[in-house]
Amino acid sequence: MTERPANLLTQAEASAVAAVPIKAVYKTVAERLPKSSLVRRSGQTLLTLQGVICVRLDYDLPKEVPVKVRRFVYGKLNEGGTGSVSCGAIGAAVSEVFSYTIDPGPAAKKVAESLRHYHRAMELIVEDPDIQDGAATFKGTRLPVYQIGSLLQQGVSEKELREDYPSLTSEMIAAARMYTQANPRLGRPRKPTWHAAAPLSTRLTPRHRA
User: Fold this and answer.
1) With contact defined as beta carbons under 8 Å apart, do 161 and 174 qualify?
2) Which of 1, 183, 198, 205 to pair with 117, CA 20 to 30 A apart?
3) For the chain, where do the domains classified as CATH 1.10.10.10 start and end?
4) By C-alpha distance, which of 120, 123, 124, 82 is closest to 102?
5) pTM higher than the cut 0.85
């Protein structure tokens, strides 16, 4: 199997790296990104790095910026532009003419920094068939990444996690948060192994009527 280039991200990975809700990624991909920023492989829609920057930029732009202006700007960026892009637009009334100058710099900086964190997170995580049935775990441990990520999504604080799991570092917690968002589980989560086991003991408790 050909390994996927590091500069091509799934839509879920783009959501994590750009720090944008997945629904916003879907919308931008479907309605605004130029085809040059998208790659189809094995039935998946992948985004180039420039496409991820556009996703972040689209999320940051004020809502009143017209879609046609966004499309024009993203097209210019995917042609290799790195500086500010200027574009005009006509409003509802013929007399309303707007001019936009959009700087992709801040969005590009955010994405570049976040992508470095994501690559570092992936270095901390392994999927070994001999450990936890191949589930993602932190390197050198048997601690499942999704378990930590799920607790974070439920609102458990980093302080509580480190009290319960002393081996966890702040870097591992950040990695779990990003990995879980970038690699969402499909379908229902697996039931724990104890779920189907017989109880160790049983006891009948009489019900007291009110």
Assistant:
1) no
2) 1
3) 124-185
4) 82
5) no
Report the DSSP beta bridge partners of residue 39: 46
Helix, strand or coil for residue 7?
coil
Select from 1.10.10.10, 3.40.50.1100, 3.40.190.150, 3.40.50.2300 the CATH code of 124-185.
Answer: 1.10.10.10
CA angle 33–112–35, rounded 5-degree value: 15
CB pairs under 8 A, 24+ apart, for 144-149?
145/175, 145/176, 145/179, 145/180, 146/176, 146/180, 146/185, 148/172, 148/173, 148/176, 149/176, 149/177, 149/179, 149/180, 149/181
Tokens found for residue 73:
């700007």
Q: How far apart are CA 41 and CA 44, in angstroms?
A: 5
Q: Residue 50 is encoded by which pair of tokens?
A: 């420039």
Residues in Cβ contact with 123 at an 8 Å cutoff, skipping those fewer than 6 apart: 139
Q: CA 180 to CA 168: how far, in whole Å?
A: 16
